[in-house]
Amino acid sequence: MKKRDFYKYDTGREQALQSLSGVQNEIQDYNNQRAELLFQAQKFEQASLIDNIEGQITTVETEVSSMQILWDHINNCQGIFQGYMDLQWLKTDSNEMEEEVKKLLKTLKEMKVDKRCNAYTGILEEIKKWLVFLPLVGQLRDPSMRDRHWDMIRQKAKSDFVINDKLVLRMIYDLNLGAIADDVEEITD
Questions:
Q1: CA–CA distance, 35 with 41 (Å, rounded to integer)
Q2: What is the mean pLDDT of residues 93-109?
């Protein structure tokens, strides 16, 4: 099971759900085989030999269900992040966004899923990036920011963006401010 593609974050939700659906079909086949084996085992009064198979199938069903829930959460997170990216810079509320991302993180950490699987760690890293980025956005959105401060940010980020109503959060996100977080904090202070 652990080698299946739905454990990998790069698989994407659609492919992961298709793979999970395929596993559900396999489970149904195993249940049919188990029923036939149980019938045969009962003939020889050996039904207890089939109990182990039932436990294994239940374990796989639980794992598939957990992974579907994880992929639904990944889809929700990515949808929210995409919505953030399209926000106009002048209308962003980083505090509200940060609270929402913290809730997403809390939900993720409460999930009963293998925390070492690539899909889990992938969305966890994406959420962490936002939790580094959003406080920087809050600092940059401070009304005390002047043109000279923005010039310093442009120099550090090696980008020539313009602060106007056409600037969207994606443009600021793409500056990879996390890599220069200390510089941004110093400039905003």
A1: 10
A2: 97
